[in-house]
Amino acid sequence: MSTETEYxxxxxxxxxxxxxxxxxxxxxxxxxxxxxxxxxxPTSCPSLPSSSPSQDSQAWTNFHTRHSTGRFFKxxxxxxxxxxxxxxxxxxxxxxxxxxGNGSTILPILRGKESIIxxxxxxxxxxxxxxxxxxxxxxxxxxxxxxxxxHCDFSVNGFPQWLACNPCQEFFSQKRxxxxxxxxxxxxDLNDISSAKExxxxxxxxxxxxxxxxxxxxxxxxxxxxxxxCLSVLKPGGLLLFRDYGLxxxxxxxxxxxxxxGFREYMRSDGTRSYFFSLESVRDLFTGxxxxxxxxxxxxxxxxxxxxxKSMRRVWVHGKFQKPM
Length: 325
Fold this sequence. Notes:
Blueprint (H helix, E strand, L loop, with lengths): L2 H6 L5 H9 L30 H14 L12 H4 L11 E5 L7 H7 L4 E6 L2 H13 L3 H5 L1 E5 L2 H4 L8 H9 L18 H6 L7 E7 L10 H11 E12 L4 H5 L5 E3 L2 E3 L5 E3 L3 H11 L2 E13 L6 E12 L3
Parallel strand pairs: 1-2, 1-4, 2-3, 4-5
Antiparallel strand pairs: 5-10, 6-7, 7-8, 9-10
């Protein structure tokens, strides 16, 4: 069995894990309602639980600065297997990768489908620089030409207008199989973001939005706005591909009581956040925004720490949601 297959197999039952965790009194504080009292705050970050978007962005900028070598991140080669729609999509399909970080999600998508075009954003300019460096280091010209990064905090301001607008959505709906580069250049070079901005035009919406370990980094109260923004830039029938931390994941259980900043919400010592999703919470967020559920399940993987040999039970939520036609 290959390493990738082992990485994505169902190694244990989530329900069994739930029963074990909820019967362990030492972990009971993870299950209690949150009343807003924080026993201590990270000394390295002035952010409060209700921190501003700029403080949250700065925390992630600091994070990417510390991990600028990229060794902290692994290329997510499993994505094309977990989301085969990316490999079988139409020619010149467009993907919006939200919260791209250092590019560990972007590169497998660009390599997995030779004609796919990826627009990638992050709230941290430092993260975008790391992503650009990763793509440049490939020395693959076709990959570089299909990668378009831009700075954006989608949970606050939504996405730029050039990603989608009604006139262009109508244009592309009439020419679904037209490649972006085939569009009349007198209209605008829709592959060129700056040109699209200057001409007050757009790229006509995207076929896929990928939210891979991004939503959990936001405060819970900003998640509905963020998901609604994702819906707004998808073409009708387009898919949002979701993967994030699941309830009772190993990393959740490692948080001490004083790191709680909400119910299932935690803040690390560096000021970055993490939320842990149940299937119900994900379903409510996405269907509440107008998406249709296609797939939704826990991914439960037993991983072994190669340094100490200890087994680690990882829990992620895997989901696919569609924008109604």
